Amino acid sequence: MKQLNAILEGVGSVVQLFLKSLSYAGTLPRQGTRFIEQCYMIGYTTLPIVAILSFFIGTVLALEAGYAMEGFGAKEFIGSLVGLSMARELGPMMTSVLLAGRVGSAIAAELASMKVYQEIDALTTMNIPPAKILVLPRLAAVLVMMPVLIIIANIVGWFGGSVVARYVSYVGISPEAYFAALRHYTKFKDVINGIEKAEVFGFVVVLVCCDIGLNTKGGPREIGAAVTRAVVVSLILILVLDYFVTKILL
Amino acid sequence: MDAPSCSKTRNPFTGAEANAVGVKVADVNKSYEGMSVLKDLSFEVLPGEIFVIMGPSGSGKSVLLRLIAGLESPTSGLITVDGQDPCLEETRDRVRLALVFQAGALFNSLSVYDNLALYPREHRSGDEQSIRQKVMHALKILSVEDAVNKFPSELSGGMKKRVSIARALVMEPQLLLYDEPTSELDPVMSATITEIIATLKNEYSVTSIVVTHDRSLALTIPNRVGILMDGKLITLGTPAELQATKDPVLVDFLNPKIDIAHPRFKKLETQETSQ
Fold it and tell me: N or C end of chain A: which has fewer CB within 10 A?
């Protein structure tokens, strides 16, 4: 019962923060510098790790697909499997997981530290709502940067698959055949579906991490606890939302 | 009691007038997880007054300041700033309230300049040039203009405190709350801060509530001083009344005698053992 109360309180707090941030949406054009800073944090600094991870996801997918499809004599369809898997599921999900670990943890740590060291209180007494200058630019930035990250993740993942398809002996199909299958079976709609999913995951991750950071209570030790909580809650939410969003988009 | 000189606050930078604000604390109680921190507090701070709150560590002074600043709500009772609940955003929209935090609470990711310029920029009070003038003026008053391009992590504790006061000045406050403004400062800088608080009252009628342990501040500039012990306001009077008191608890608190032959900690140890 106590845990259920805590969950409901958490949901209420996140919804409240969302509505409050939304109410300041009109101030975003005046917060250009903060928005660009957050785009840099969320997009640029996450990009290398997203690219590396996506490349290897693509390679593993091609390896496994090659192994499984060899028995059916359907190796030429590896491109379609890698293409669809990356675009619809693995691209958005793994990028969101990385976002939770890389960006979500940093957001929770920064805001929790500001709370513990009374910077949030200082903002409140200055009548500068934290939702306006700390949350809104991050939410806007994640909505802009997630599609960019997903498109890059997909392209790099597809390329990773083609490298395995070409150079691993038991797979051994040409890049032309790999990309022909990929193009034939992976539609524009699949890529858009993946981007829509990632937008939901990214938005929720940033919102939840902001809320956990802003609600930190106690001393410096609580900063670490807030980071752990933010990452764990984000990962759980990504997996749970994945089912529901997929169901809606199918 | 000295009556506040006027009921209008004058802006230190522009000279513009605004109504000075008063604070009312009525039957306020505050407890955390059943532990009572403030007990039935009632007093009023008049517009343009300097009101000092003294008391031993842990007596609830900073909590009281947080309640007046609207950062927390009382468990029961009522606090009003200029007749309105300080927790409401509308009150903060109407009344310029600044709080000087004990540890400074400067924004670590911003330079000293940006720390001070944040409030006027966010509230669009003037163009960048007039903001710069205000910021530099406030830093100069506190003798920290050399730190303008530094970050808080590069400042000493005392400098952080002075920058924090400068940040409050830039807000052109009608009500200024200070949490231990002279702690961590050398005697000259403590005297400067005391003079600044007095000047803001005398020339600009800024209402000030000061939580402090600094006797020289508490017994020179305020209109009234309240002593808080165990969450209760045990006395309220002018500095002259407090200095003339015969109450042994207050006498010991305000003028503690250092007795090396019979140290206090030994007495405390004896009391604890007998209990």
Answer: N
Asked whether the CA dihedral B132, B138, B141, B142 is positive or negative, the reply is negative
The pTM of this model reads 0.86
- The 3-state DSSP class for residue A3 equals helix
Amino acid letter, B68: I
Rounded distance between C-alpha atoms, residue A36 and residue A233, angstroms: 27
- Residues B153-198 pLDDT 10s: 999 888 898 899 999 999 989 999 999 998 878 888 888 888 888 8
What pLDDT was estimated at residue B1?
41
Write the pLDDT tens digit of every residue in B90-144.
888 888 999 999 888 999 999 999 999 999 999 988 899 999 999 999 999 888 9
Helix (H) or strand (E) holding B136: helix B128-141
Task: With beta carbons less than 8 A apart as the criterion, state whether A87 and A154 touch.
Answer: yes
**Distance separating alpha carbons of residues B183 and B216, to the nearest angstrom:** 12
DSSP classification of residue B84: B
- Would you call A128 an interface residue with chain B, using a CB distance cutoff of 8 Å? yes
φ, ψ at A18 (rounded to 5°): -60, -50
Does A125 reach chain B within 8 Å, measured CB to CB? Answer: yes
In which band, very low, low, confident or very high, does the pLDDT at B17 lie, cut at 50, 70 and 90? low
- The answer to whether residue A117 neighbours chain B at the CB level (below 8 Å) is yes
Identify whether the C-beta of residue A68 lies closer than 8 Å to the C-beta of residue A170: no
| Helices A188-214 and A2-23: angle between axes, nearest 10 degrees | 110
A69 — pLDDT class (breaks 50, 70, 90): confident
- The amino acid that residue A148 corresponds to is V
- Side-chain-facing half-sphere of A27: CA atoms under 13 Å: 21
Burial of A230 (0-12, 13-18, 19+ CB in 10 A): buried
pLDDT of residue B5: 43
Tokens of residue B258, six digits: 């250092």
The ipTM value here is 0.84
Residue B244: left if φ>0, alpha if ψ -120 to 50, beta else—which one? alpha
For B107, the closest chain A residue by CA position comes to A119
Query: Taking residues A184-202, what's their average pLDDT?
Result: 95
End-to-end CA distance of chain B: 43
Quick one: B166 exposed, middle or buried, by C-beta within 10 A (0-12, 13-18, 19+)? Answer: buried
Q: For chain A, first and last CA: distance in Å?
A: 35
Beta-carbon separation of B99 and A128 below 8 A: no
* A126 in Cβ contact with B171 (< 8 Å): yes
Backbone dihedral region for residue B159 (phi beyond 0: left; psi -120 to 50: alpha; all else: beta): alpha
- Beta carbons of B212 and B224 less than 8 angstroms apart: no
**CB contacts < 8 Å between A and B, how many?**
48
Q: List chain A residues with CB under 8 Å of B97.
A: 125
